[in-house]
Amino acid sequence: MSEQQATEVTECGADCGAGVQRIATRDAVLGEGLAIRRALPRPPRRMIGAWCFLDHFGPMHLDDGAGMRVGPHPHTGLQTFTWLLQGELLHRDSLGTVQPIRAGQVNLMTAGRGISHSEESPQPVQGQLHGAQLWIALPDAQRFNTPRFQHIAEPPRLQAGGWEITVLAGEYDQQRSAAELHTPLLGLDLHSSGAAEQFVDLRPDFEHGVLVLDGQIEVDGQLLAPGELLALDPGRAQLQFRSASAARVLLIGGTPFEERIHMWWNFVGRSHEELVRYTDDWNKGVGFGEVQGYDGARIPAPQTPWHR
Ligand code: MN
Question: What is the pTM of this model?
Fold first, then answer.
């Protein structure tokens, strides 16, 4: 996340309609060697609503590997939002939470003024792993709140046009996610096991992002597969999702986030000075509590470009 990346935008031209961008994800490594695709932040899109980070991991076989191992590290000013599709992960944090997350479940950790956590594949490491982790920027009024952790074992589901729709964040068709959020947001998972076709109603004041997690879909008349984020400006009331065969897609949205945020490593703040302070505090062991029980080292924060 610290690296400057070349811009890779496919301008759609007239066929794509105004206010639509296709943005290539980039390959990145999470923790101790897990290959993932990063869809946010990706120039020219830093955010979709308050969603400020989106990693897609898997689907992958874990046999003979270490699986996911992300040692204790801090966060500020954001919520981490984990959506698991296959396999299992174990979350530990400095509040004392030890929470397995399994397929179909959501973990929501509100960092507020500061928290630390670890994430790992439970032993023995085996089977499949597939999921997504997103971050949500907290608005100024809530970003120094007390840290919290929320596990959502059974997010609401509904059926529409051959799609099974899981309401991960916000509200859709009178189904509301239990996720405690602080700005208007939407997160939907659409899964089909065959042909499916449905118009999904959108809030016109939201901007949206569409990321295919499995298979291939046609959205708004465009073919989309894993590895590309479709970003849509506000002003849409509907979006058509079609699949010819089994597919899974993530739809995120929110009102454009008006506050200017600064991100460095695992921190969200409002100034370089603030990010330098978080970095120094973590490396001195101040202000982020302790994660108990993780069999490995805490991750040191890299020096910021603003350190002197
Ligand atoms: Mn984290």
Answer: 0.94
